Amino acid sequence: MTETASPSTDPIVPPATATVSQAPYSAAYTRYAMLLLLAIYTINFLDRSIINILAEPIKNELKLADWQLGLMSGLAFALFYTILGIPLAQLAERRNRPMIIGASVAVWSGFTALSGATTNFVQLVLCRIGVGIGEAGCTPPAHSLIADYVPKEKRASALAFYSMGTPLGGLLGLVMGGLIADAYGWRFAFLVAGVPGLLFAALCFFTLREPRKILAEHSARITSAQATFRETLSYLMKKKTFWLIALGAAIKAFIGYGHAPFTASFFLRVHSEEIARLASMFELKSVGFMGLALGLMGGTAGMISAWLGGQIADRFAKTDLRGYVVVPAIASLLAVPIYIIAVSVPSASVALWILVINGLLGSLWYGPVYAIGQSIVPPHMRATTSAILLFVINLIGLGLGPTVVGIISDIMANGVGLGSAQGVRWALMISTCFGVLAFLLFWMARKTIREEMES
Fold first, then answer.
1. What is the overall mean pLDDT for the chain?
2. What cellular component terms from Gene Ontology apply here (predicted)?
3. Distances (CA, A) of 215 to 152, 336, 442
4. 9 by DSSP, 3-state: which?
5. Which DSSP category does 63 fall into?
6. What residue spans of 54-75 are helical by DSSP H?
7. Quick one: CATH architecture of 23-452?
């Protein structure tokens, strides 16, 4: 029933151990499942983030303010995404997780495609809410599945591999969205982004397996133990480490999500002439060039960062569990001055290359943080714990980040009188300073993590 994989350095699927409950399927199937989950999460983030490169064309056509861009790309999505994530995670503790993920893919992909038919701000916000409703059913059950699929000692690497879908989806969203918007308009870009999800929904329905029954045959605890949301939350309230890393990750998400809708806008406003000149060298328009540049440079750096974060954390954690929080702590602190330099230099091309360095630091926290979330509770609490972790991260990060950065941009531009170009620059610099707080939170978790890790 269970095949034991030979030792390997494969980052996709860590080698199985002799513990049957840690490897319910063969190494080959586990690789396929991990690749499929990565593809689904990539589509998840593509559909979520494509609006970032389309922000300027949407703003110009629908005559929106920066705070509306922030609300549309952040709070409107995040409220439903975070709130519905908890009941869907509770469902995933008891029901078929692949079915939940597949249905979610179909819902969010449909609303992404529908976004292209909107004609005003309210309609677009409603579609973004629909995307958030669908995406709420993806990551908590996926995290729980991955924790069942792979051995504990490779959990950070496996979750980091899955988390590569964030920068990869962002890369594809920026590149595809920018190029399609230049050629056919922003509405058609939404339509194209929504279509692939239907294929992946079908693959999830028909090929992704639920390992719970196999694991239950070898562990009476899995069959008998169930936890309500209240019980899981009560259990987590005793885990200081969880709340420190949740808040630290939320601050990192606040910065990342807050910057995302305005990074292309920053270059198009502050460095408009240089960007137009660079775009013409590739026979592109400015929006298409920015999507290509930010996607390829930032997205590639983000994927490397996400993968490295899991590898480094797993390696250090073998001898000291504090490695899980030291890695994101140091990366958070280093990113602050690097980003400020990037948005301060007078050259757009130099700024883009400095942002690559920032990108190499920005995603290091994914694997370690999500591994702690899956290891600090018993198996029957994992999906709900993931949802609670994502609730904190996304409500603060995705819900407030774009909206707050947009408000700061409007205040600096209109209230202070700096204009839209300098307004967005100062908004980006001010918000990135919160990285110091993320550093402190991760660093404080060093004191408790070794005593509080559970499974």
1. 86
2. membrane
3. 14, 44, 33
4. coil
5. T
6. 55-62, 66-70
7. Up-down Bundle (1.20)
One-letter identity of residue 157: S
**Would you mind telling me the total number of residues written for the chain in this entry?**
455
Cα gap 169→416, rounded to integer Å:
36
How far apart are the C-alpha atoms of 91 and 329, rounded to whole Å?
Answer: 33
| Dist CA 246 CA 229 (whole Å) | 17
pLDDT digit string, tens, across residues 257-281: 899 889 988 999 999 999 999 999 9
pTM above 0.90, yes or no: no
Q: From CA 95, how far away is CA 349, in angstroms rounded?
A: 50
Locate tokens 């199937």: which residue?
Answer: 29
**293 φ, ψ (degrees, to nearest 5):** -65, -50
DSSP 418: -
- The H-or-E segment that residue 346 falls in is none
How many other CB atoms are found less than 10 A from the CB of residue 358?
24
Task: Tell me whether residue 18 is exposed, middle or buried, using C-beta atoms within 10 angstroms of its C-beta: 0 to 12, 13 to 18, 19 or more.
Answer: exposed
Side-chain-facing half-sphere of 251: CA atoms under 13 Å? 23
Nearest alpha-carbon partner for 312 in 445, 160, 437: 160
pLDDT value at residue 11: 38
- The two tokens of residue 293 are 């540049």
DSSP code for 15: P
Type of residue numbered 422: Q
Angstrom distance (rounded) from CA 421 to CA 206:
50
Write a three-state SS string for 36-61: HHHHHHHHHHHHHHHHHHCHHHHHHH
Residue 336 near residue 187 (C-beta atoms within 8 A): no
Q: Which residue has the tokens 């939350």?
A: 233
Torsion of CA 169, 172, 173, 176, to 10 degrees: -160
19-30 pLDDT, tens digit per residue, is 334 567 788 899
pLDDT at 382 over 90: no
CB-based contact 401:256 (threshold 8 Å) = yes
One-character DSSP codes across 348-394: HHHHHHHHHHHHHHHTTTHHHHHHHHHHSS-GGGHHHHHHHHHHHHH
